[in-house]
Amino acid sequence: MKKHLFTLCALLMALSVSAQDMSGAKLVHKIWDNNTAPHSNGMAVAGETRNSRPTLTTEAVLYVYTPNPAAKNGRGVVICPGGGYRHLSMENEGAHMAAWFAAHGYTAAVLHYRMPNGCPEVPLEDACEAISLLRGEKEGLPAEMHCAKVGIAGSSAGGHLAAMTSTMGSVRPDFSLLFYPVITAQEGKLHKGSFDNLLGEKRSKKLSEYYSLENRVTEQTPPALILYADDDRTVPSVNGPIYYEALKEHGIRSSLHIFPYGGHGFGMRDTFHYKHAWMPLMLDWIDTILK
């Protein structure tokens, strides 16, 4: 009996932490789940949520953060947290980032996307639908949340999803903001866990190359701002120049910044030495791109 009570208490605590972390959202909108989406990831039950990190997710949900009406700039951004395509870092790479964007006039929507579980089309269609909703091209969000220009931001595996949406999506963002993104499946340069979860551990070389996003860039790919720390030991910082070079080969206006140190997953952490350097840089870059 005590064991069951402890398990129930732990579950309730995890749920309350998750809800608290997203409490700044003005609106929570469920997009769909495996039963109603175009494709399923094949998972019947979602995993546990630990430390605000839902695992093996089976439904797509938008948490929308809105700016003060007087500061609203008509721009939106869909935010894709990282987590190796296994879990979602909803706090550091989601809620905190959305609150910061909203404070600067953006309508920011954190995307709780479904894990691929070897089905890469699943998170991709979640991201495309989120962009369409924020643009007002699909019903679901109130008109005051619709934005004329909508970008996408992503961290780590969420950065792969953001870049995948930019290069392969049926709906393309107006710009992309990539924090230490997973880009390539090249040996010695890849983040193996992300590609294992995206495509399966027994993926073919051809499939891996197809989802190496430097190979998917075209003239229709939107501009990208790419940020890394040089000492990233999780996703090698060489992923950044690989994607940047592909963008430049196709004439896409983009910027790449590799900070001297900071490791992986710096996101909105106050401990990241260059936090207050990338913030104004990013706002200025978006202003320049959207002129």
Provide structural commentary:
The protein is an alpha/beta fold and 291 residues long. Helices cover 34% and strands 18% of the residues. The N terminus is likely disordered.
Q: What would you call the structural class? A: alpha/beta
Form type = globular
Helix proportion of residues, in percent?
25-40%
Q: What is the mean pLDDT?
A: 93
**Element order, helices and strands?**
HEEEEEHEHEHEHHEHEH
Number of helices: 8
Element layout with pairings:
Layout: H1 2-21, E1 27-33, E2 49-50, E3 53-54, E4 59-65, E5 75-80, H2 91-103, E6 107-112, H3 121-135, E7 149-155, H4 157-168, E8 176-179, H5 192-199, H6 205-210, E9 224-229, H7 239-249, E10 255-259, H8 275-289
Parallel strand pairs: 5-6, 5-7, 7-8, 8-9, 9-10
Antiparallel strand pairs: 1-4, 2-3, 4-6
Give short descriptive properties of this protein:
291 residues; alpha/beta; eight-stranded mixed β-sheet; globular; disordered N terminus; single chain
How do you describe this structure in short?
The protein has 8 helices and 10 strands.
